[in-house]
Design a protein that fits this description.
Length: 212
Amino acid sequence: MTRIQDIRREYRQGELRREDLHPDPFIQFDQWLKTVIDTGIPDPTAMTIATVDTTGQPSQRIVLLKDVSKGGFVFYTNLESRKAQELVANPKISLHFPWHFMERQVKVCGTAHALSLAEVTSYFLSRPRESQLAAWASQQSRPISTRQLLLSKFQEVKQRFADGDVPLPKFWGGFRVIPHEIEFWQGGEHRLHNRFVYSRTASDWQIERLMP
């Protein structure tokens, strides 16, 4: 049986140099994301988000990135969920894109800001009907005794809105993460990985290479 401590590999897919980086981290991110999407892997926009509760306990979960621009990174969620409630109390957040198969990672540190009703409504109405219904059926992060009970709730909601459009729930919304720091990581041989961090300044972004 292979011991966990013996599982390792070398990272040889590429190198990341300062001259390879775009001065704008959002453009750099977009370039990497497009490369990932073009590979055809499942869930290329999956990201881990980390929040902290009032006791200082961090919590992580995976969600899907739904938009990115110079305004920030956008995701949607039930506003009564654990992550949303933690962000209301403490808007500091970290995002992580684990593109291990390309030996790349991106880490984002910033603050989460609630999206406008217009933005949330526009996205909600673009979702598949089943996803809209699921938003109504699930009290996200709440305990439930069986999966069958959840499926029953879904059927109840399906019947409730059978004759028309599914409206936006008042408890459903989203956040835009405005970063102050974005780090790009490219694996390197002998664990001499390449790390560059963009830090927001008053007028622009500063780029520094970090030790691996």
